Amino acid sequence: MRTVLLYEYAIVRVVPRPEREEFLNAGVILACAPRRFLEARVRIDRSRLAAFGPGLDLELVEAHLAAIPILCAGGPAAGPIGRLSQRERFHWLTAPRSALIQTSVVHTGWCADPVAALDDLARRMVDMPATAGSPSA
Asked: Are 86 and 71 in contact (CB under 8 A)?
């Protein structure tokens, strides 16, 4: 019998102008306490972001996004946040903020494999779906 595990996740968003509350999904953070799992998948389509947020410093956005998986992993590379427990790091990463990088509210789900669940969420919530007539459709 497969073990079914509870997980929590939040969508990572790039919010070029927080006052407009418009965003572009750029990643997913997933925590699964029974497996002591905390990881993120982050990626951004530079052309979509440039069109969505003209004048946005894309290198700055990418640097902030690149820090998220490092913070999930913890340890010395993650600085002071890296010394927190996984649970504390997840809550720090998903805390509400009014900034360029934000997260959605925390959602829950059930899975047998947190890595597969994270990859599936990233595919469904971050990647652009193929459209009819596109080369990948």
From this structure: no
Of 68, 48, 46, whose CA–CA distance to 59 is shortest?
46
Could you tell me the pTM of the whole model?
0.91
pLDDT tens string, the chain, 137 residues long: the values are 678 999 999 999 999 988 888 999 999 999 999 999 999 999 988 899 999 888 899 999 999 999 999 999 999 999 999 999 999 999 999 999 888 999 999 999 999 999 999 999 999 999 977 655 545 44
Look at the block and give the residue holding tokens 């969508």: 11
DSSP-derived 3-state class of residue 108: strand
Chain centroid to Cα 15, Å, comes to 13
* 38: enclosing H helix or E strand: strand 37-42
Can you name the residues that pair with 108 across neighbouring β-strands?
8
Specify the amino acid at residue 40. Answer: A
Is the distance from CB of 5 to CB of 114 less than 8 angstroms?
A: yes
